[in-house]
Amino acid sequence: MYGKNRLLAAIVVVAIVLSMLVIVPRVSKAAPTLSVSKDTDLTCGEVIWVNASGLGPNQQYRINLSIDTWPGTSFETLTTEYANSTGHISTTVHIPYRAEPGNYNLTIVNVSDPTDYDWMNITIKNVYKLEFWVGGSEVDHVIWNKDYVGDDIFTVKIYNWTGSTYELLDETVTVGIYYPDGTEVDPPKNTSTGIWQKEINFNYTDGTNYETNYTVKVKNSTVVFSDYALPVLLDITADVPTAVVWGDEVTISGYVKDGKGNGIKSYIVKVYAPVHGGGYTEVDSDTTPSTVSTGRFSMVIDTGDFAAGTWYIGTEMTGEYRLNNESTGAKTTFYHNISGVGNFTWYYTMQVGTDTSATVEIKEPDEIISGFNQTITVYVEWNGDPLEDAWVYVTGLKANYSGTEYEDNENISVGQTNASGLREFTIKFLETGTGTIFITWPEENDNYTGDYDANVTGLTTFTVNSPAPMNVIVENPPTEVMVDESNHWMNKTGVETTIKVYGDSEDTPINATINITGCGLEINIDESEHQAGQPGVYKVKLNPKTGGTLTITVRNESVSS
What's the fold here for domain 359-465? Predict the structure, then answer.
């Protein structure tokens, strides 16, 4: 009995407790996701983008960075932001000063709900920002075998981030320069002014390769505060054509020299052009003479053999410490490199412009109106010949194509031209105004991104008018007179032409009498002769006897003529 009474009491208590629960609705959302524009090799004071999604709409969040290295026991708030109505934040922050390089914990936390957060690691490589100066100007590289002395003495400026600006460092640090293989050029020396200078000649030789990177380090006895790569290049001058249009033949020539003006022997210069998908292909190459120290190179190139876009001219050699050596990435610096091409360092670019001379013409119909499906025939010509396989696009007006509605700022792909340069498509415009038809060749417009451009383009504009009280669409009219070998008219079955008669919309077909005259023809069609079950649709076979103009007159007394 005691057990039964106890059980009953327990049930009663639970029931009472449950009866006091209140269900609070909660907006469903995804877990926060944090990302940044750059998460490695950061320098104190550098600006990065911070992006977050899956946040509570219109809720406030703090973006924090740990004060000490990973995992971090205390945090500094970099900024406080409100998520937008879709739960996104996108903002910029400065990387704050930290006492040492390393991994730090970046977090985003809901101000009202600490369980609503995300985090990620970022790596600060440089406590201090370094700048390299020569002859009163900042430089991002130095020249091989140049004497940096006197007014051109090599100078390092060391900046500390104060939280709002960079200032020259006024603490004592040690600065050292290191060869590509990691050995010291000379014993490091101290500075307490934030400015460090050294007379030096960067003349490290990596086999037959001279383009490498030295390293500049700022440190104390135990900690390397800053570690900057210093690319070493050659003194290359080149005559690179401008205003180049795809298909032009061009000459690219110049000299490869060291910092003393000596020509470099047996050095390879190459040209690369972009290809579909973001890569590059070699266009041509030349090697400077091996017997004389001129450093001369020259290449004659037909741009029509490759793609339009941004081309790159530079050197390509091999070496363990070669700039942009993808196989020994830990030993090199990636400077003026292009995707997928190892050992290549570019010095110049050449813009090969798109040939915009293609002509685009609307062959049919004579008038385009809104609210009706109309078949449009476009003809594309380039260099006097029909352009086959050109991609045709319509833009500038709201339209329905192949069952999909498009806004006026979208490019509607309607296919490619045939061997005759023609592309026929059916489209319904949903508004009046001016539209544009443009073409790209040889690929679809969306493929042209980054350095890769279309070889040939062209465009035309057209007007879409409002429908009249009565509207007539003529499909497949004859375009030529059929004659025999003696140039006499051939009495054969003509072209079947379709005439469709509507009121002010496609939903209101109307019957009408039709009179066709001209080119030796006189044909009358009664309004009752429409296609069975298709009011307003008339078919007639037309075989013009002479050249000229066909006139089609359509009458419906209750509407207009």
Answer: Immunoglobulin-like (2.60.40)
